[in-house]
Design goal:
alpha+beta; 7 helices; 170 residues; 2 domains; Alpha-Beta Plaits
Length: 170
């Protein structure tokens, strides 16, 4: 199994892709003069190591292209890379979907930290509670961590927020 597996959001779902880091570091990609040519080249590299559904080729090409731009502009952990993430075509940072932790209710059990593989939470040793470290790393629509929280310290906006967001985009 390769260590070069990265997750990107495609059509509202996180998809793990093998070889994405190596593809992004290929210097020949910089030779492509136009966006469409670059998208085709990136899609070819992704499809060489991953299953790309025929009906989703355009969505994969667009998502990989945006992730590539973020990678090229900044380092692996650069905040600009996060701005390449979208949900249903909406830039992730414009979507107010992330947990809120009630410090008074949090018992510091860290179940949410252990559960969430996206690094949304961190532990504050001084006050022995959990805090939201990376709100926009939260998967839009996911609220499973709140169901694991026994003291019910984690809350999310109502799902109607997402319904209204989708309706407003027409």
């Amino acid at each position: 199994m390769s260590d070069d597996i990265k997750q990107i959001e495609i059509e509202g779902h996180l998809v793990g892709l093998v070889g994405l880091g190596a593809a992004f570091d290929d210097p020949s990609l910089r030779e492509h003069e136009d966006e469409d040519s670059l998208k085709r080249a990136l899609l070819e590299r992704v499809a060489a190591s991953n299953y790309v559904p025929k009906e989703s080729r355009e969505a994969y090409a667009e998502a990989v292209y945006l992730a590539y731009l973020g990678h090229r502009e900044g380092g692996e952990d650069d905040d600009r890379k996060k701005s390449a993430m979208t949900w249903r075509g909406i830039v992730r940072e414009t979507i107010q979907w992330y947990p809120t932790v009630d410090d008074g209710a949090c018992n510091g059990c860290k179940r949410c930290i252990d559960f969430c593989s996206f690094g949304v939470f961190s532990y504050e040793r001084e006050c022995e509670t959990v805090r939201v470290e990376s709100p926009f790393a939260c998967v839009v629509g996911c609220s499973l961590c709140s169901s694991l929280c026994e003291p019910r310290a984690i809350t999310f906006p109502p799902l109607s927020y997402l319904d209204n967001l989708i309706k407003s985009r027409g």
